[in-house]
Specification:
The protein has 401 residues and is α/β, with parallel strands linked by helices. The strands form 4 sheets. It has an 8-stranded mixed β-sheet with strand order 7-6-15-16-17-14-18-21. It is globular. It has helices at 19-30, 43-47, 57-65, 70-75, 95-99, 108-121, 240-250, 302-321, 332-354, 361-376, 378-389, 394-397; strands at 3-9, 12-15, 35-38, 54-55, 77-79, 81-86, 89-94, 103-105, 126-127, 131-136, 144-149, 152-157, 160-163, 179-194, 203-206, 213-217, 223-229, 264-278, 281-282, 285-287, 293-294. Helix 10 (361-376) crosses helix 11. The structure holds flavin-adenine dinucleotide.
């Protein structure tokens, strides 16, 4: 028997406790704007979901400015650049030297843990295990969100709904006339987490005849490694031995690179695709992060872009609710899109530069020319470094202000 409706009220109902929704909740709290986060999973599930792990410089600065970076500053691994390997030889791109900025390796699940702990400690409500979340009346001035929890129906009245509910977003599906521009790549990534100490303090992106491989890490004890595989690859066909042998074949061992092996504690296959769905707003419903766009993981941008959207959204909401300018919500999509498309471009370039696309010799030579260029021209390397380390959020958020 379903319980009665329990009604509640807030200014902003945030759907989804991923990086976009949680950062938004902190940005709104910093502006004294009331919000409630509704998350369909339980707390332990979202805190242990292994996904991204590279934080751009502006993401780290933002978390610091919100007082959310204590553990990140203690435990995050500061990397001053990356390495590109081809023909078995490694080439460094030194972000710090080229741009004065660097990146930090810190697991997405650790970011999520920190954001949840700080939000709850400040008394900010996060409703876990909120199911059947349904925004209603988002084209009016009085939207509400219905959901179910513990067999009780709830209604959360609000002024704005923030759809931060990831790639299978319910919220995004409510935007009428939504157009999706997308590209599917003819490969996927087999990713593993291994209890093996990293041998490097930089990520190694390896372009190889057998396919792409990425060497990265999550902590001083845990390595994160990826192999280019066919889309829909059957994980059961990949024994631990086969994974390590393939990694050893593709990574530049002949160039002094060492690969530590160890127990594989997590594995999965993720398809590679890009998409952008517009508009990112309908009435009082604003969409952020993976709910609006997906980038291939090669550029390490998904989480950072979700957080960048949250900065734009917080500024737009403040303008609408506190600045008496509700019409500013209309700028939200175009303001986000300038960063979204630059990020798509960067992620697409990294993906096409590094992966094996069948046997096309012309494509292979173009890749080789691009790798040569980026490792020999300071201008090309600086361009890559700037994009990888992250363009400032302010450039984009200011346009809303
Ligand atoms: C499987 C996977 C692996 C990835 N690996 C990498 C990687 O290795 N490197 C990299 O750079 N990037 C990676 N990414 C990309 C990166 O993790 C995402 O871009 C990032 O999580 C986006 O943050 P978000 O807040 O927009 O969405 P999410 O992190 O997906 O958060 C959305 C939240 O909404 C909740 N939710 C969903 N639907 C509802 C609903 N109806 N009601 C209530 N709550 C709901 C979800 O449970 C989730 O907590 C990966 C993504 C995925 C999906």
């Amino acid at each position: 028997m379903m319980g009665v409706v329990a009604a509640d009220e807030t200014e902003v109902a945030i759907v989804g406790a991923g990086p976009a929704g949680l950062v938004l909740s902190h940005l709104l709290a910093a502006r004294d704007i009331d919000c409630v986060v509704l998350e369909q999973r339980d707390r332990a599930y979202v805190e242990h979901r292994v996904r991204a792990g590279v934080l751009e410089h502006p993401t780290v600065e933002l978390l610091r400015s919100l007082g959310l970076a204590d553990r990140l500053d203690r435990e995050g691994l500061a990397h001053r650049g990356i390495q590109l390997a081809f023909d078995g030889v490694r080439h460094r791109i030194d972000f710090l030297e080229l741009t004065g900025r660097s990146i930090t390796v810190y697991g997405q699940q650790e970011v999520v843990k920190d954001l949840i702990a700080a939000r709850l400690a400040a008394g900010g409500p996060i409703v876990f295990e909120a199911v059947d979340v349904t925004p209603i009346g988002v084209d009016t001035d009085h939207p509400l969100v219905r959901y179910r929890r513990d067999d009780q129906r709830h209604e959360l009245r609000c002024r704005i709904v923030a759809g931060c509910d990831g790639s299978y977003s319910v919220c995004a599906g409510m935007v009428p006339g939504r157009a999706v521009a997308e590209r599917r790549y003819p490969f996927a990534w087999l990713g593993i987490l291994a209890r093996a100490a990293p041998t490097q303090d930089e990520l190694v992106y390896a372009s190889h005849e057998r396919g792409f491989a990425l060497y990265s890490m999550r902590s001083p004890e845990v390595t994160r490694l990826y192999l280019q595989v066919a889309p829909g690859e059957d994980l059961a066909a990949w024994s631990d031995d086969r994974i390590w042998t393939e990694l050893a074949a593709r990574l530049p061992l002949a160039d002094g690179f060492r690969l530590n092996t160890g127990p594989i504690i997590e594995r999965g296959v993720t398809g590679m695709h890009s998409s952008v769905a517009t508009p990112m707003r309908y009435g009082k419903l604003l969409i952020a992060g993976d709910a609006a766009h997906i980038v291939p993981a090669t550029g390490a941008k998904g989480m950072n872009l979700a957080i960048a959207d949250a900065t734009v959204m917080a500024a737009a909401i403040e303008d609408a609710l506190r600045g008496g300018r509700p019409e500013r919500l209309a700028d939200y999509t175009s303001t986000c899109l300038s960063r979204v498309w630059r990020t798509q471009l960067f992620s697409h370039r990294m993906t096409t530069m590094l992966h094996r696309f069948g046997d096309d010799p012309f494509q292979r030579q173009l890749q080789r020319a691009e790798l040569d260029l980026v490792t020999s021209s300071a201008a090309a390397a600086t361009d890559l470094a700037e994009q990888y380390a992250g363009l400032p959020f302010a450039t984009f958020a200011e346009r809303v202000g």
